[in-house]
Amino acid sequence: MEQSEQQAQQLDHLAAAPLPAPELSPSPFAAFGMPPGFGGPAPAAPPEPRPILELEGEEFEDEIDSLTDWVDDFLLPTYGTEVTTASPWCLQWQEHPDVLAWVHALWLAYQQHKDPEAGLSGMFVWHRDFLTHAIAAIRSPGGPLSACMTSPDRPAHRVLPGPQRSARTEKTNTTPNAEPGAGESAS
Questions:
Q1: Cα separation of 7 and 24, whole Å?
Q2: What does 131-183 look like in DSSP terms, one character per residue?
Q3: 6 pLDDT exceeds 60?
Q4: Rounded Cα gap, residues 86 and 78, in angstroms
Q5: CA-based Rg of the chain, rounded to a whole angstrom?
Q6: Is the pLDDT of residue 184 over 50?
Q7: Which of 52, 77, 112, 182 has the most Cβ atoms closer than 10 angstroms to its Cβ?
Q8: pTM surpassing 0.70?
Q9: Which 3 state secondary structure label does DSSP give 87?
């Protein structure tokens, strides 16, 4: 019990807020090839990636430009099989919100898995767990691009309408000051 209490106190101490970092001074370890600030505060972490559909304005435009470059220069030349009715594509894929979200998520996963920290199997994991599933969902015969180009000789683009709001939601929105369950008859 005493050992458990000591461990709990040690965990509480470690979980406490860190002390403010002292001013960085030339490292006494510089002669040994250690970077200045060795033992000092860690560098700021890069910002967390956000889904592209949550971005706005210039941030959205910059992200879609980079994503389009990756799709045009890497994804399609490498994995873009022939365009057919069984595997449609759209030259304006960025205008399909669901396709844009899928491709962006695929790109983020690609960046993560090609990083050396992902290890030697990082790209295999990307192929197995991300690429295959995403491409199958995007380019399926009944998928989001099914009303678009199925023949390179006849380019087409059409965003299909999505599902409408449920009847219950519409009924609630049109009935002023309606309470849940109000207006329903007891059978």
A1: 32
A2: IHHHHHHHSSTTSTTTTS-SSTTS----PPP-PPPPHHHHHHHHSTTPPTTTT
A3: yes
A4: 18
A5: 26
A6: no
A7: 52
A8: no
A9: strand
